[in-house]
Amino acid sequence: MKNAIIFNDSGQDLTRRTMGAYKVADMMRKVGWTVEIIDWVEHWSDKEVQQFVDQLPYKVTLFAFGNLWMTDTTVVNKISFLKKTYPGSKFLLGGPKPYQTDFGADCMVFGYSEKALLPVLDWMFDGGEQPKGRYPEWAPNSLLVDANHMYAGLDIDKFDCEYHSHDFIENHEALTLETSRGCRFKCKYCNYAFLGVKEDYGRSEDDMYNELMRNYEKWGTTNYIISDDTFNDRDNKIEKLALAVERLPFEPNFTCFIRLDLVISKPHQVDLLIRARCWGHFYGIETFHPQAAKAIGKGMHPDKIKKGLLWIRDEFNNRLGLYRGTCGMIAGLPYEPVQSWYDSLDWLDKNWESFFYWGLHISDDPDTQTQSDFSVDAQKFGYFETKNQEVLDWSIEKGYNVPFKADPMGRLNNKLDNRALVWENDITNFKEASLFGEMYHNKYFFKQRLSNFDMTEYIGKFPEDKKELLSLTLDEMYLKRKYSSVNKKRIEQYKEHKLSLFK
């Protein structure tokens, strides 16, 4: 028998489930593996992990980690403990976070793993051929497999994930729905996989309907995060989801990543999104500066973007009665003067409910091919490694490019990558842009209303308070009402369920 435990986490104190570990478990079970998942592993002590493993009626042969939201320190410490406690077991890591540390694993799979998983398992346990990959200098005993390029999981047959009774899914949870793979666009700063994809790799209306119905009938699930990099890059994706939703015997709620300029240029998308009950949006606007917007591949004039934001909010509120749009902004883009950051922040503070600001992060990681245009050729866009010793000293003090010290709040980047180019250009530098992001966090973050993703996290837990939830600031939600205690209680209940499974 082949038996595995997969460790997972969703970051901080949220109880949102990330789908990757569960999809891998689903795939492994279908080829004969017995798999248990331990979620929210940051909240499990070594003693509790050992208690769970020792109660199993079989020997664990593989310990795996879906490490996207785990700190490197947690993964390193857990693997070290498990190696000492269960000698002879093997260790596998997976996820879209760049690998930049020697975790002590046998294999590290980077990116979407649907097509890499079985070759990796065959090599690790059945004497199969070594998968395409290499042993990096910084982790000489760990095979690094860049699945996004060597085993590109773009054209896949199975999008859905079948959860197990041992996962203890509760009806208030927001699960993940994936409707397609790849993004039609290629923004210059973006280092996600499968950009500029022209083919349609979406799933069918019936396939989405069947997954939504199965989760509703099994777990009572009605709330979802759509994981597509850009959900509205094709009209037919939204229309297929809308048709599936209109067949359901319940009202679901969806949140997703939306390209705002597309909605403005294609106003019929508002109708489709309302029909699909997709009313939680994250907009990667990045800048309100015209030249900067063009430089990153977003050409719509910022005045039109601002007007469109206000129009979309009114349309959803008037027609559906539910809406939360969260804007993502970046300080440090080409051609944008520093004063423009402050002007944009001022407009958002006066006119919008939910937004984030980050300093520009340019990855300097040479070990994967999934890199933005900025990362591949920073100098082409005017970015050079700074010679300013004060900026270099500051970056080291803050922990950038230092193992285990990547920014814990993720304020500088959304890929959890701690190999950053400490850059400067003709206008500003890495430190100034980063400190602007920190200033936003310290002075503005808790004034914001709940983001679209936070709304999805809580709407199922407090279903009678949708309007009230939309009105709450992060300060009111987390500091005054201490709603995060609900998540901590949920995690403790989950641990009790898991630890009692095999008693």
Q: How is this structure best described in words?
A:
38% of the residues lie in helices and 14% in strands. The two termini are 21 Å apart. It has 2 domains: 3-154, Response regulator (Rossmann fold); 169-354 and 448-472, pyruvate-formate lyase- activating enzyme, CATH 3.80.30.20. It is of the alpha/beta class. It has helices at 20-30, 46-55, 72-85, 117-125, 147-150, 205-219, 235-247, 260-265, 268-275, 290-295, 302-319, 338-351, 373-376, 389-398, 430-443, 452-459, 466-471, 474-480, 484-499, and strands at residues 3-7, 34-38, 62-66, 90-95, 107-110, 143-146, 174-177, 223-226, 253-258, 278-286, 324-331, 355-359, 384-385, 423-424. Helix 7 (235-247) runs parallel beside helix 9. A 6-stranded parallel β-sheet has the order 2-1-3-4-5-6, with helices on both faces. The protein has a 6-stranded parallel β-sheet with strand order 7-8-9-10-11-12, with helices on both faces. Strand 7, helix 6 and strand 8 (223-226) form a beta-alpha-beta unit.
Task: Give the tags.
503 residues; alpha/beta; pyruvate-formate lyase- activating enzyme; 2 domains; 6-stranded parallel beta sheet; 19 helices; 14% strand
